[in-house]
């Protein structure tokens, strides 16, 4: 028996059907068996790599937020004030400019990264209960504890290496002390954060004394730093720190962290902060009128602004927040700038 040859319309139908099926099969094979040298298809490259790029960008932004760039100016401003006190000029001498630029890097991103990474690692139990920290990178899992440990070690090593090689031993020693205080403030079993009084002292010493002393040490020996300025720095920063414990009192209580606000209560912390702020303002006015640092016929702006400082602080700490406390710092910049202007005009001591 001889089979008829598949001709005519029937064959044409099969010829048209086969390429469509073959095309689908070929397209599948092309997508899976593509030669490695040719790389992935253009469409798949964009869709497969886009999530990874977005995740890297999100992690980078999360790390930047973790270092709290809005805190960097605290160290910079304090160190700048110390530099102006030491040189009696608004800008550092040309010879000290390279050291000053390195100090900006150390006192800004490096120290804050080193201190805050270890702080956030050990604050995780309370941060998970804290609505203010609900989007913190570690809380939402965007960064891990291993990430924070790596960045802590890297920032610590970089800060110490830069200060030793590019600035000097006095600045390096101060940097090491700040790093040690930051570690002791957050890390068990020491964890000064949960030891009311010592937590205040640690922050006041780091920001109120060591930071301006760092700026001073760029130009003059640390032993000649004015004791009165150190005392005022302690009082002012202690007053600014106490309201920050009020912000997280509920979360700290739930996590079992006995901070100053948990131990003493929010009202006592606010009152203690106001008393310290008023004491610093009063001591400052007495020193101005006695000519302890600078002799001047009239201190009208200082006298008038003292009441603004105290009233502004009292209003801010009724419902404390980071922006409100930043506003108090801006209020303080007015009499500070007035004093430094006269300090420079007075010339060398």
Task: Describe how the helices and strands are arranged.
Elements: H1 8-33, H2 42-66, H3 72-87, H4 97-122, H5 124-127, H6 145-167, H7 169-186, H8 198-217, H9 227-247, H10 249-255, H11 260-264, H12 266-290, H13 300-318, H14 322-346
Question: Main attributes?
Answer:
transmembrane helix, mainly alpha, UbiA_sf, 14 helices, transmembrane, 0% strand, Prenyltransferase_related, 349 residues, Chlorophyll synthase, disordered N terminus
Give structural notes:
Residues 1-52 are annotated as: Disordered. The longest helix has 26 residues, at 8-33. The chain has one domain (61-346). With 349 residues, the protein is mostly helical. 74% of the residues lie in helices and 0% in strands.
Q: Which spans of ≥5 residues are poorly predicted at pLDDT below 50?
A: 1-39
Structural class: mainly alpha
General form: globular
What's the order of the H and E elements? HHHHHHHHHHHHHH
Beta-strand content bin? under 5%
Overall pLDDT: 87
Q: End-to-end span in angstroms?
A: 124 Å
Q: How many whole angstroms does the radius of gyration measure?
A: 31 Å
Number of strands: 0
Largest sheet: none
Helix content: over 70%
* Count of the domains: 1
Total helices: the number is: 14
Subcellular location: Membrane
Membrane topology: Multi-pass membrane protein
Organism: Micromonospora humi
InterPro entries: Prenyltransferase_related (IPR050475), UbiA_prenyltransferase (IPR000537), UbiA_sf (IPR044878)
């Amino acid at each position: 028996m001889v089979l008829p040859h598949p001709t005519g319309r029937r064959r044409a139908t099969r010829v048209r059907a086969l390429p469509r099926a073959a095309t689908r099969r070929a397209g599948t094979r092309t997508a899976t068996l593509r030669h490695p040298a040719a790389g992935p298809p253009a469409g798949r490259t964009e869709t497969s790599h886009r999530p990874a790029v977005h995740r890297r960008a999100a992690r980078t932004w999360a790390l930047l937020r973790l270092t709290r760039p809005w805190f960097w100016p605290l160290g910079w401003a304090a160190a700048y004030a110390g530099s102006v006190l030491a040189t009696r000029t608004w800008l550092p001498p040309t010879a000290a400019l390279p050291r000053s630029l390195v100090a900006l890097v150390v006192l800004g991103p490096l120290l804050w990264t080193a201190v805050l990474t270890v702080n956030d690692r050990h604050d995780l139990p309370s941060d998970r209960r804290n609505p203010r920290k609900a989007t913190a990178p570690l809380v939402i899992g965007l960064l891990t504890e291993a990430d924070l440990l790596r960045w802590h070690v890297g920032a610590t090593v970089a800060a110490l290496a830069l200060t030793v090689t590019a600035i000097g031993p006095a600045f390096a020693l101060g940097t090491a002390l700040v790093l040690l205080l930051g570690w002791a403030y957050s890390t068990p079993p020491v964890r000064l954060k949960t030891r009311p009084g010592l937590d205040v002292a640690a922050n006041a010493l780091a920001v109120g004394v060591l930071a301006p002393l760092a700026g001073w040490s760029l130009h003059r020996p640390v032993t000649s730093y004015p004791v009165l300025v150190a005392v005022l720095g302690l009082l002012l920063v202690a007053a600014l720190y106490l309201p920050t414990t009020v912000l997280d009192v509920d979360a700290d209580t739930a996590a079992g962290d006995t901070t100053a606000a948990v131990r003493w209560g929010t009202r006592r912390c606010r009152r203690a902060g106001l008393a310290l702020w008023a004491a610093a303002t009063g001591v400052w006015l007495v020193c101005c009128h006695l000519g302890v640092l600078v002799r001047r016929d009239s201190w009208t702006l200082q006298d008038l602004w003292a009441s603004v400082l105290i009233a502004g602080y009292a209003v801010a700490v009724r419902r404390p927040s980071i922006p409100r406390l930043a506003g108090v710092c801006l209020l303080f910049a007015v009499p500070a700038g007035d004093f430094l202007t006269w300090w420079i005009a007075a010339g060398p001591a």
